[in-house]
Design brief:
By secondary structure, the chain is an all-alpha fold. It contains 9 helices and no strands. The chain has 2 domains: about 90 residues, no CATH class; about 110 residues, no CATH class.
């Protein structure tokens, strides 16, 4: 299903679902459900993308608007159309880009990931000046992880999140995910308590564990 056709199917299904909601429960209930779902989605999205600041505002607004319309519409279709509504909702959910990418990635993992060198996803931590850069987009092999100090290792972890968001293929994403796991393993070997404290604090995929590592090291030194 092409993106344009799928978009039109979503528009039509959403309109039909909202019509079902209005005719079944009334306009006031429909507006209440749209606002409630939209606000809930905005709160959840804000907690996930809070560290991105103003750059995430537009994304959060789009997600809240879409969720506020689509979720009540899906409920309306299922309640009114029963099995037909369930099939429509499942078809649209099953063709979402995120889900199809995940399925495609798992399908490719068995035969293509073996030929990808995980080290290719290790970001180059240095600019020509020798100073680490969080915004550099290069992903070239560098020194072994054990030769990096804690600050550089944490920087590599944070930069790998940016690389993951910019990845254009499923194989590339899987390679970067594998490398991120190596970063976490190395951090855990150096400071299990520090990593545990970071995770317990509600660590984010783009978060910086370095303050927790240094805090634990200071306590040990004291």
């Amino acid at each position: 299903m092409s993106r344009r056709v799928r978009s039109w199917c979503i528009y039509l299904a959403t309109a039909a679902g909202l019509f079902c909601v209005i005719t079944t429960w009334g306009l006031q209930w429909a507006l209440t459900s749209v606002i409630f779902v939209g606000v809930s989605a905005a709160i959840i999205a804000t907690s996930i993308w809070a560290e991105e600041g103003r750059h995430a505002v537009r994304r959060i607004a789009r997600l809240a608007f879409a969720a506020g319309l689509i979720v009540p519409a899906a409920v309306g279709l299922v309640v009114v159309c029963k099995l037909a509504g369930v099939l429509v909702v499942l078809m649209l959910v099953g063709t979402t880009p995120a889900l199809t990418s995940l399925v495609r990635a798992r399908r490719l993992a068995g035969d293509k990931l073996a030929g990808v060198e995980p080290q290719s996803a290790i970001p180059d931590l240095s600019e020509p000046s020798g100073q680490p850069s969080l915004n550099s987009s290069a992903a070239e092999p560098v020194r072994e992880l054990k030769s990096l100090d804690d600050d550089a290792l944490c920087l590599a972890w944070r930069r790998s999140f940016l690389l993951l968001e910019e990845a254009r293929s499923a194989v590339e994403r899987l390679s970067i995910v594998e490398q991120r796991q190596k970063y976490l393993d190395e951090l855990h070997q150096r400071s299990p308590e520090g990593v545990a404290a970071w995770l317990a604090s509600g660590a984010r995929a783009s978060g910086n564990p370095f303050p927790y590592l240094t805090d634990h090291q200071r306590r040990q030194a004291g």
